[in-house]
Amino acid sequence: MKLSFTRVCRSIGLLLLAVTCLSLVAIAQDDDDAQVSSQPPKPMYRVLPGRVRYDVPLAPASLTTWNGSFTYGGHNYSYNMVGTAPSTNASTTVQTYIIPLKIVITSRRTQYTFDPQHVLSNGKTVVQNTTTSPIWDSTTTYVQGGVNVGTTQYEDAYQRANFWGTVKNAPNYHVLLGGPTIEAEQTLSPSSSYGKIGSPFGFTAGLVDINWFDAQIQAIITRLGIQPNSFPIFLTYDVYLTESGQCCIGGYHSSEGNIGSLQAYAHATYVDHPGDFAQDVSALSHEVGEWMDDPLTVNYNGNNTPCGILENGDPLEGNSNYGGYHYTLHGFQYNLQDLVTLPYFGAPITTSVNDWFTFQGESLSVCQNGS
Questions:
Q1: Helix (H, G, I), strand (E, B), or coil: what is residue 121?
Q2: Please, are residues 265 and 217 in contact by the beta-carbon 8 Å criterion?
Q3: φ, ψ of residue 59 in degrees (nearest 5)
Q4: How far apart are CA 256 and CA 308, in angstroms?
Q5: What are the pLDDT digits (tens) for 87-131?
Q6: Rounded to 5 degrees, what are φ and ψ at 129?
Q7: Cβ(240)–Cβ(207) under 8 Å?
Q8: pLDDT tens-digit profile of 341-366?
Q9: What is the DSSP letter of 49?
Q10: What percent of the residues of the chain are helix, what percent strand, and what percent coil, each to the nearest 5?
Q11: CB–CB of 95/179 below 8 Å?
Q12: What predicted TM-score, i.e. pTM, was given to this entire model?
């Protein structure tokens, strides 16, 4: 049988086209493992609304909280916060748990492991460097605008400054983090649908879907038997969460359980690349501060303000250094995020130390950066 030169060329061309298309599909599939979104990274934190469940029994213990309110623009706004009212002149300690999460992601047939037991340049693991930070260490003295608000933990110093109009006459008032108790490391291995590899800030990072991730850590809380009167914190290393394909979430907090005993919890990542989003304990300082002032994240507890929900870290995350300030402890320079005080949300300015709108004295107006 004879074939014309034209038909031969056409057949070869179709074959080459098919091979090329198959190669492009394979490359695209590999690229899909490595990419989450073509959008530029958006550094952010999240709060997930509390999930009230009526199919679980009431827990034997609940988180110690108190209720307060203020009036702004002729409207009354209420809030629910951890501890007791500052006017009680009492100290509250909430037991904390750190659950290290090893994240294992397979991409392009290569396995990547992001382990909070990784040893940092100062010889400590990520977990150790976190627990010895000013978030738990109580040896740092915080002098804000010439006012000594206490030698204590970072978040406690913030809350004392937040209500300094009352606390200056109630010096025994504290909200402290107990422990922490370090739980056994847990391993999560998301499928390619939920876990990918990327470099949104120039270093290799794990990228994990927040909704898949949240379902896993809720199951871990149940399995570990942690009670609502405590605060579990899930710690990852060089891992950002994503939502609808958009990166990058450095941490979030939420709650889940029976309406009378909701279990508050948080996640924070630890990034060991100075200057990048969520470096060292900045994400954790953000989430602990927001848990302290909005622990249960449900509407029936109030925490609505003229700006929106009462999230005291979000208005400052877009600042220089992502709102972080340097504190040196044990020879290591930590980054802890500034937090807005209640006057930022519309409370009387006399509520806070020096009438400040943030713990560090940033110049802001009411609701300037939303919530």
A1: coil
A2: yes
A3: -70, 155
A4: 21
A5: 999 999 999 999 999 999 999 889 999 999 999 999 999 999 999
A6: -70, -25
A7: yes
A8: 999 999 999 999 999 999 999 999 99
A9: P
A10: 25, 35, 40
A11: yes
A12: 0.90
